[in-house]
Each structure stands twice: as C-alpha cells, then as structure tokens.
Specification:
This protein is α/β, with parallel strands linked by helices and 403 residues long. It contains 16 helices and ten strands. It folds into two domains: 2-253 and 309-393, Glycosidases (TIM Barrel, Alpha-Beta Barrel), CATH 3.20.20; 257-304, no CATH class. Helix content is 43%, strand content 14%.
C-alpha cells in the first residue's frame, strides 16, 4: 500500500516510446504463447476452479509490517518474525469474522543475485511457520510478493532481473506446492510500478507461467499496471490460464483516504478531518489548511466531485462489468483509510460504502490492514484492541472476548 503515493505522479507518464513498445510486444507474444500451451493442457473442469476458490476470499485483512515493510532498524530478524504477529493475533482475526489474510512478503531479504532460485532455508522456515499458523486457524492465505519500489523499478527496466524473478517465483511456488490449493494462493506482485502497461502484461505472463511450473494446482492472483489501480484492469486482456483471479486496489479518492499520511503527496500532509461524503460546502474548512492555492484546489475539486456511495459504485461497477464481460473472477485486496487524521465516522462511512459496493457486485475484499496505520486493531502496552467502529463498517462484529 505504501507504494501507492507514487501513483499520482505516474499518471502523466503514460506515453509509450515506439521502440519500447516493440520490445514489449515481443515479450508479450512470447509469454502468451507459452502460457497458451500451458492453458491447452488443462482440463475443462479447471475453468471454474478460480471462481470457486474466491469463496475463501470473501472478507479478509492484510498482514503488513511482518514479512514486508519492516521499519524496525534491526530489520528482518528472527525476533521480529516470531513476535510481530503471534497465534493470538491470528486467533483474533478469525474471531473477528475474517476468512482469509493477505500475507505481504518482501522478497529482497531472501533474493540472491544470480541465484534467485536458492532461497535461504532459515528465512523460508520463518515464513513456513507463519503460513502454517494461519492455515491451522482455518484461514485462507494469499502469499503476496510485496517488494520495495527499487525492486519493482528493476523489473520495469531490466529483462535479466525479470528472469531472476521468474527463477525465484518458480522455486517459491514449488516450495508451497504441497499446501492446500483451495486455501493458499500466490499473488505475483503487489502494486506494479510499470508505466508501460504493455511491458507489464508480458512480464506478468512470464511470471505466471513460472509459478504454474512450480505449482500446477494453485490459484494465481494478478493485477494491472500503475499500482494495481482499478482502472488498469479495463486495459487488461486476461492471461491464457484459467486458474487466475484478477485483483485491484481501491483508495479513491486518494486525497481522502491518505489525508495526513506523511509518505504521500506533500499537500495532503496538511489535511485532517476532510469529510466524506464530500460536497462543495463541507470541504472548505479542511481545504483552508492547505497553504498554497494550487494544491488547495485539489481539496476543492474533491468537494465538487461529490464523492459518496453512488460515486464509489460508479467506479467499482466498471471493474465488475469488465470481469463479467471476460467471465473471470475479480477481488479487491486493498482498500482503507489512514486512521491518524481522518474523522472516525467519515472513515467508517467510506469503508462501509466501498465494502457494501464490492459485496453488491460479488467481489471479495481484503482490507488494508490489521494493525498498521490503516488498522482494524490498535496495539498498545501489550494489548491488542479491535476497533468496533471499523468492524461495523466491515459488516463484522466485535469478538466475544478480545485480548
């Protein structure tokens, strides 16, 4: 999720240089040819597998800052892996009514240059323990490869690095191929940072084929370019593999969901209590907090756009229409509002509108996140406290006894 701040800056960079286009098309067709051969080998019954497995991915939560986005100066350590989330956390997630988790995994600490298929056994051991803990509590798990931006930028520019990432994914998929394919799925890459969507389609097809070699039975989760944004799926032709779920992230409007976020676009740092739903009148007080007129206009535009349940429906409905047209399953595995500076009731209203809209269209969801800045729980002084307002917005209830 934290990479999404770059999305706004990328919107203007969508032109495609002809030479890059030609190279990307070559990758695309080579990849699709291999994937098509793979698809032809599948039995007709495979076509409904991914759709059936979405039943395990109806209402989930993201487990961030555990195996990815570790901000502790000590980094990715045994102590961190064993204490950041425990069996008590997983039990609480189950008790709150979630049916799956999305486990963010940064490949970089276990990615060996030119030896990407040799994943360190000790690191895999920590990850294995986490996956087993989740499955033992009756939850499905999405293994989400969630690197930092520098890793994704290499994928966007370096074909050799793409091949190494294929080796890594093939081996990781092989390692988890013995897990229950009904409950374990593989997400190729969190929020791709590809400004060339044609190159991303080719790269993603190659990575999907590598995963399929390692784990023939497991479902693969894919996304469009530009930070997995919902609109990118509209440009996307489904891969030639029936056992795939298509995914998007939804944080629109960014000015509301990321108000006050220190890593996001500079002007949103000034915002707090920006209201939702928005009207031209009710945004004025928050807009006045932005010191320069040009950026203040962004908040005014948010009011003029009148963001409400109908507007959310209009956005998500486009994705639902795309999925219906292609007859493919789709999920939204990130959505949420930064908690620190948003009005709690307005935050809950947005979460409720997005969640109910997704459910209206039969789209499974995974909220961002469990205990981070967008969290459904807070951790303080050794206590983990579920937020009742957020749970209600998600259509869930407070567990009988929280810890």
């Amino acid at each position: 999720m934290s990479e999404r701040e770059g999305r706004e800056a990328s919107i203007g960079a969508r032109s495609i240089v002809p030479l890059r286009f030609a190279a990307a098309v070559a990758i695309l067709f080579a990849s699709f040819s291999f994937a098509a051969q793979l698809s032809m080998a599948q039995s007709p019954s495979d076509s409904g597998t991914a759709q059936r497995r979405t039943a395990h991915l109806r209402h989930g939560i993201n487990l961030s800052e555990w195996f990815a986005q570790v901000y502790d100066q000590k980094g990715y350590t045994k102590e961190h892996f064993e204490t950041w989330n425990t069996a008590q956390d997983i039990a609480l997630i189950k008790a709150m009514g979630f049916d799956h988790v999305r486990l963010s995994v940064n490949p970089q600490p276990m990615f060996r240059h030119k030896q990407a298929d040799r994943i360190p056994a000790d690191y895999l051991g920590y990850l294995d323990a986490a996956v087993k803990m989740i499955l033992d509590h009756g939850l499905a798990v999405i293994i989400d490869i969630h690197p930092d931006s520098d890793f994704k930028e290499k994928l966007a520019a370096d074909n050799d690095f793409v091949e190494q990432f294929e080796d890594y994914w093939r081996q990781l998929a092989r390692h988890y191929s013995s897990t229950n394919p009904e409950l374990v799925s593989f997400e190729i890459l969190n929020e791709p940072e590809f400004r060339d969507r044609y190159r991303w389609q080719g790269v993603q097809a190659k990575l999907a084929a590598a995963i399929r070699e390692g784990a023939p039975q497991h479902t693969i989760i894919v996304a469009g370019a530009y930070w997995s944004s919902e609109s990118e799926l509209l440009f996307f032709d489904p891969l030639h593999d029936a056992n795939i779920i298509y995914n998007f992230h939804f944080y629109d409007p960014h000015i509301f969901t990321h108000q006050g976020a220190t890593w996001s676009t500079n002007y949103v740092h000034y915002l707090k209590d920006l209201p939702y739903p928005s009207t031209p009148e009710n945004v004025q007080q928050a807009a006045a907090l932005i010191p320069d007129a040009a950026n203040r206009l962004q908040a005014i535009h948010y009011g003029l756009d009148r963001w409400n349940a109908a507007r959310v429906d209009g956005e998500i409905g486009q994705v639902a229409g795309w999925a219906k047209g292609w007859n493919v399953p789709v999920t939204c595995n990130e959505f949420g509002v930064y908690r620190a500076t948003a009005n709690p009731q307005d935050r809950a209203a947005w979460i409720s509108d997005v969640r109910t809209t997704l459910e209206k269209y039969g789209i499974g969801w995974t909220m961002w996140d469990y205990s981070g800045g967008f969290g459904v729980v807070t951790k303080k002084d050794g206590r983990t406290s579920p937020d009742e307002v957020t749970l209600k917005a998600l259509g869930l209830k407070m567990p009988a006894a929280s810890h």
